[in-house]
Design brief:
By secondary structure, this protein is mainly beta. It contains no helices and 25 strands. The chain is elongated and about 70 Å long. It starts with 44 loop residues before the first strand and ends with a strand. The relative contact order is 0.17.
Length: 312
């Protein structure tokens, strides 16, 4: 059974957006000069693959030891929001959340040469990203495989002037913003894999597992890179070699070794038996792991949806 979802899916739905009423009313988002002649530039927005996207809203969201600047076209903070958003989100390290003017280039914070006064460490962007009832469709219009980038920040009184160029495999987001930045007072905790997670749903190639047991499977991560897997819904083979599930009252927990490389978690069961799951959603309370595998030339995906178990 496939066992096992930013950094960074601090998925975009953790962004804190604000109302357009709080933006600078003098912002020119048309991308046109006076007189109606269209230019190749855009004010308070970005250009991606030769298309112009206004982003009149800019927020700063504080996390435990860093902050995120988010340039976005509209407020999508409502839990049941449905619509299409265009955005650029850039992450900077900062102990106190202060925005320091300067020029920053992309460099992973795991690089020994990383300097928070000169570098930003991650970014994700969207162009035409669709959200339905608070759920984002990341299959199109979403970009996170960052190649390079530069962000320049200047400030005069309470007005910021920011220009940025964020390059992904699929294109470059070239944008700017002049105006005030809305500060979020909320401190959003960094999600952690450590602790116990309960399996709430298992989908085998899109089909939800119907067998329900009195207890749900659990997955617990420890700091020493050990993980304990307890399976109450055990897979077995019938006479035709097909897998079926049965409930087990007192399963024997398995202790495995886990490691993480960006959005990939590897589980080592010993004896060369390993399994990789991709983190496709990850918050402080929800973890979704997707397993992709091939069988007889066909590609399949299994999805496991976990909920964090609260501890006293």
């Amino acid at each position: 059974m496939k066992r096992f979802t930013s950094l960074f899916l601090l998925i975009i739905l953790t962004f804190v957006a604000c109302s357009e009423d709080d933006t600078n009313p003098t912002d020119d988002m048309s991308g046109e000069e006076t007189g109606g002649e269209e230019t190749d530039e855009i004010t308070n927005g970005f250009i991606f693959n030769e298309e112009k996207y206004p982003t009149p809203i800019v927020t700063k969201t504080n996390y435990d030891n860093h902050y995120q600047l988010t340039f976005v076209n509209e407020d999508f903070s409502a839990a049941e929001y449905s619509g299409t958003i265009n955005f650029v989100g850039v992450l900077f390290q900062s102990v106190d959340g202060q925005i320091i003017p300067g020029t920053y280039t992309f460099l992973l914070d795991t690089d020994p040469n990383y300097d928070q006064a000169k570098n930003f460490f991650d970014a994700e962007s969207g162009a035409g990203l669709k959200i339905t009832n608070g759920e984002a469709d990341l299959s199109s219009g979403y970009y996170e495989k960052l190649l390079s980038g530069t962000v320049s920040i200047a400030k005069e009184n309470t007005t910021y002037t920011i220009t940025y160029s964020i390059e992904y495999q699929d294109g470059t987001f070239e944008g700017n913003y002049t105006g005030e930045i809305i500060n979020s007072e909320e401190i959003i905790p960094q999600p952690s894999l450590l602790g116990k997670w309960e399996l709430m749903e298992y989908r085998e190639n899109g089909v939800v597992e119907e067998v329900q047991c009195p207890n749900n499977d659990t997955l617990e991560f420890f700091e020493n890179n050990e993980a304990i897997i307890t399976v109450y819904r055990e897979g077995r083979l019938d006479e035709m070699g097909e897998v079926f599930r049965v409930c087990v009252d007192t399963p024997q927990p398995d202790t495995v070794i886990w490691s993480r490389n960006e959005n990939i978690i590897t589980f080592d069961f010993g004896g060369g038996d390993t399994e990789e799951g991709e983190i496709t959603e990850f918050t402080t309370s929800r973890l979704v792991l997707t397993y992709t595998y091939e069988d007889e030339g066909a590609t399949f995906q299994d999805v496991e949806v976990y909920q964090k178990v609260e501890t006293n």
